Amino acid sequence: MSERVSHASGPSRVGRAVLVQLVGWPSTLGAAWGTLVLVFLLNLALFGAIHDNEPSPQTGALASIYIITFVGAISSINQVFPFTLSLSLIRRTFYTAFALLQVGQALLFGVLLTLCKLVEDVTGGWGLNLTFFGLGFLDQDNPLLQILVYTVPFVVLGFWGSFIALVYQRWHLPGVYVLAIVKILAVGLPIVLITWQRWWDEIGRWIVDQPSLSLVAGWPLVIGVAMAGAGYLTIRRATP
Asked: How many CB atoms lie under 10 A from the CB of residue 34?
């Protein structure tokens, strides 16, 4: 009997943690898609005005929704995590709920962006041959693969932002400074080594030989899983 109660209490606690975090979700959704719609309308107006001079306009403004998602993950941890602990929810429960929401949100956003791209294709780039939701060589003929291409970067940025916020929760500003130094070294030292050994040509050929799907979904997904694991290890001793 006790095992049955214990088994039932786990999911119910995760469910409560999900509901707590969903309280601020409308503002997160509104900020992400409100910003994207505003940027899209501005691009539509801009390229509509110069359409004769720019026969096939392209824009990278789609990145705005990914940036907002990254910032939103940081804000969610900093604002909701201390509150959930005051409700006597354990850290593992909070992080499980957070991870479920991040993945669910990423998938939802991926589906919506794929639908927007389909409309863009059908309308001939909104009547202007404008490429706003298209990703160039990363575009996929299979809608499911296209959803994956849109979804994975949301997962990576969501867990990356949450990891930064959790480092702050546990070690405060000194921890963030150390994390920044580690990231600079993690990027800078390999660049120095590659330049010294003159490996850029080999690396360039390796990248060119990779399928576009692996570049935008496969390898980034590995990074996202690593960030999620790092966040889980960090939150176990985080104290707001």
From this structure: 13
pLDDT in the model for residue 22: 82
Yes or no: say if 77 and 148 are a contact pair by the CB < 8 Å rule. Answer: no
Domain membership flag for residue 220: yes
Torsion of CA 231, 234, 235, 240, to 10 degrees: -120
- CB burial of 70-96 (b: ≥16 within 10 Å; e: otherwise) equals bebbbbbbbebbeebeeeebebebbbb
Is residue 25 included in any domain, yes or no?
yes
pLDDT digits (tens, 9 = 90+) for 68-90: 999 989 988 988 888 888 877 88
Q: Please, what is the average pLDDT of the chain?
A: 86
Whether the CB-CB separation of 162 and 98 falls below 8 Å is answered with: yes
What is the identity of the amino acid at 166? Answer: L
Mean pLDDT of 3-26: 67
* Helix 63-86 vs helix 143-197: crossing angle, to nearest 10: 90
Cα gap 20→32, rounded to integer Å = 20
- Domain of residue 178, residue span: 2-235
240 domain-assigned: no
How many structural domains are present in the chain?
Answer: 1
**Chain centroid offset of residue 7 CA:** 32
